[in-house]
Amino acid sequence: MPIDISARFAFHLDQPTDLLLQFEAAAIPEQKILSSETRLAEAMHVARVPAQDSIGERIWVRALGDYSVEYSARVAVERLAPELGSLAMVDPHELPGEAVGYLFDSRYCQADRMQSFVADRFGKLEGGAKVAAMRDWIAENFHYVPGASTPNTTALDSFVERRGICRDYAHVLVTFARASTIPARYVACYAPGVEPQDFHAVAEVFLNDPTAPGGGAWYLVDATGMADPAKTAKIGIGRDAADVSFLTSFGLSRFDSSEVQVTETK
Amino acid sequence: MPIDISARFAFHLDQPTDLLLQFEAAAIPEQKILSSETRLAEAMHVARVPAQDSIGERIWVRALGDYSVEYSARVAVERLAPELGSLAMVDPHELPGEAVGYLFDSRYCQADRMQSFVADRFGKLEGGAKVAAMRDWIAENFHYVPGASTPNTTALDSFVERRGICRDYAHVLVTFARASTIPARYVACYAPGVEPQDFHAVAEVFLNDPTAPGGGAWYLVDATGMADPAKTAKIGIGRDAADVSFLTSFGLSRFDSSEVQVTETK
Amino acid sequence: MPIDISARFAFHLDQPTDLLLQFEAAAIPEQKILSSETRLAEAMHVARVPAQDSIGERIWVRALGDYSVEYSARVAVERLAPELGSLAMVDPHELPGEAVGYLFDSRYCQADRMQSFVADRFGKLEGGAKVAAMRDWIAENFHYVPGASTPNTTALDSFVERRGICRDYAHVLVTFARASTIPARYVACYAPGVEPQDFHAVAEVFLNDPTAPGGGAWYLVDATGMADPAKTAKIGIGRDAADVSFLTSFGLSRFDSSEVQVTETK
Amino acid sequence: MPIDISARFAFHLDQPTDLLLQFEAAAIPEQKILSSETRLAEAMHVARVPAQDSIGERIWVRALGDYSVEYSARVAVERLAPELGSLAMVDPHELPGEAVGYLFDSRYCQADRMQSFVADRFGKLEGGAKVAAMRDWIAENFHYVPGASTPNTTALDSFVERRGICRDYAHVLVTFARASTIPARYVACYAPGVEPQDFHAVAEVFLNDPTAPGGGAWYLVDATGMADPAKTAKIGIGRDAADVSFLTSFGLSRFDSSEVQVTETK
């Protein structure tokens, strides 16, 4: 069953500024873009580049003054979502090079500093069962409070404050997984059922793929519990929110508004 | 004229622990490995994987107890080192996808938070001249003080404290460049002339390549002024020190000692 | 010439919560409260305690639901405001015990980490001339941007970001002074000429008192340049904003609005 | 039964530097200084001032080059140490002004950011029973690891890393208590039984005094479990370690060594 996505956002630039936008559902095997329409306000120039790991595209825009973006799409998600607890860990030395990069600390996910907590709390579990326990621990110990965090909030901040939004929940889960030598990345996405409706974010962990012996695959995990992996449309991925924001401004910008609607197609 | 490298380091692990090591000069076109020898202590297992952007290799080791590494090599560096001030910027929307990733904030280089300072201080300059001014500003305003920083020290910490070592100088330069929309990465390397002798680190920025019109290339810049790009052997690169440490431990380890000697071959 | 103050603010408490309020002009020798009126919404209880160093009062309130405060006053300020540059430093070992406490690091003013910068930049100056240079340096290098900082923003954050409001300017000045072994504290105040009109904050430094040989006194310094010390009504003082907020909530509260008007009496 | 204290420490100053030292057991009613000897190396000048809340003394020293301090004392501690769990909370609005100041955030104890965690974890308990649960929670969840923290480590850092020394344990306990509207301060002290032997630190909380109806008193609490309040000699108190270090240097200093021995007199 496809999902219907509608998003728009607007911002203002006091002087000519370079921006990277990434807001379109990615055209990748696990999700088919049935239809889509992107409307960008007029800009000094626009250019597309492949996004991280070639999942989706980033759009360079150089603009001035008021700027707005509108996007709508229908996406058929065909993602397998196996029971997380059944998935084994991939031994670190058997990880493919591309997954190894997602073990390292990043802007918002300083995993090295959480090794002691993670070992004490989750050390007796393995693989997918460990990740499931991390997800449940976050769900139980955090409060979902829009406005409680800022763009500077890191996973460590969130761990201290125990409050945040999807971005913060995903950062903490990514951090826990990496501290446990499980590669983890951040996924910007659209998903029905997110309250309040907005751009959404979840984590993705690299675990054994039971359908391909000896191999591994990335699995979506949402510590907020709001998104169903089988109905989630990925925009892009990155080490954390620094890599895959819908709007990255290389200069000062004033964000004005955004509006997102995601529904299951009837 | 080649350089001779000799390095050894040792650490202790209280329980079986996975480690990533990266300490060998990379086999890449700009430097030829004339000879090399690596001696790893016995481990529970050892596996090599390509390192970031396929520059050099990382070595997975699973070990317990005392562990030591010895490495020696002779490397012929054939790197062009054009006058930095003569290099033009590559317009953001013309950057190749692989360089775009080095514009984003990373663990130790939170460039978004320095946009205001960088615009005020360096905003009137362009391209290589701007990077050269950043390098000189750091050299003038920082004190090289071994022991003044820790593995947690970020570029923002260093900017406040105005003290640090090569790692910190490189982080600040990377941060300044990114805040100015110039891709920048962190380079672990060996270089003669580093005082005190140790593993070294410099920055690398992506600017126009005058020998390939329309294209860009990475250029080494050392804000400490100790390393000559034409005599520097790269170990590997990353967004910052989180990606390219000679020792990344996924569990608690106790570092015991390291010793590095780099000399120009006579 | 007196000043007229009018302030109101409102907030909401989801459950019974203890709050400390401090918003009234202090009754101290250097300013006379000609008239004043305070209206507190009904509370579960209200109690007054002397505020820090007995300058002004704090009001304990235990309340639930919507809560609002209204305050108006006419205050005659009789503060001497000597030329800052003419004031000598008090030697640390001659400081009175009460001033010594304002040399230490506090929540938002981590002076120890800025000793190197302060020594390099201002080390050749002494006493009031040094403080004046610090004030002018901040005025020159910072942008006054309402909304650019949060209640978590420290002086180090502000030093990095070069943007903030009166609170941030005062924190940076306090930090610089302490890093130079000059006692400095944070002053919450009302002042005409503040744009946009709001609660204001400035720094106060302890320097030699030329009218009392061998002694010292506290002198107001406003790095934003908006407040005239001779027309500023102090509310209270503290090590930094943590001590002297108009609203400190010991539990979660939702701030709704505030409105401040300060004018010179005609 | 008295305790015998012996301490010495040494450091080096490259240029004339002002220092504050605080290392002597305080002469206060709850502990009698039976004998003591302080030997300070020669300095450019030395001056004593009362320390915070008049508990103990700070010593100003202006010195250059190598500097050392030796101290020995015999102290009879006569401190009541009631069962913590039996002590009631003092209602915030009944706190004396001097205790109110210890509710605010300080350099290393940013209590506002931990209100959510503290309410969730300890919210159903009251007064001394709540503090005892905080102490036990820290003891259970932290690892005592000399060298795992630095002078910059805050309570939030320690809460994330779950490792530290007495200073860190005390900071976390102070932070938890304040987040729960219980005044808490930091106590530098000497105590037998501390392993490894060193300067020690504990927390002190303000709770009801059953011997003085309507009043409150400060009670020592050691989350490390190493010090017995009935045998602990206080050096001084402060909001946190920033206020009551044995060595606060207003300029760069190089710490060389320290040695502390505390034993029960036989």
Short description:
Chain A has 266 residues and is an alpha+beta fold. Chain A has five helices and twelve strands. Chain A has two domains: 96 residues, Immunoglobulin-like (Sandwich); 160 residues, C8orf32 fold (Roll).
Structural description of this entry:
The structure is a homotetramer of 266-residue chains. Chain A has 266 residues and is α+β, with helices and mostly antiparallel strands. Chain A folds into two domains: 96 residues, Sandwich (Immunoglobulin-like), CATH 2.60.40; 160 residues, Roll (C8orf32 fold), CATH 3.10.620. Helix content of chain A is 18%, strand content 39%. Chain A has five helices and twelve strands. In chain A, strands 1, 2, 3, 4, 11 and 12 form a six-stranded antiparallel sheet that branches. In chain A, strands 9-8-7-10 form a four-stranded antiparallel sheet, with helices on one face. Chain A has a two-stranded parallel ribbon with strand order 5-6. In chain A, strand 8 and strand 9 form a beta hairpin. The radius of gyration of chain A is 18 Å and the shape is globular. The model of chain A has no long low-confidence stretch (mean pLDDT 95). The interface between A and B is large, with 42 and 42 residues.
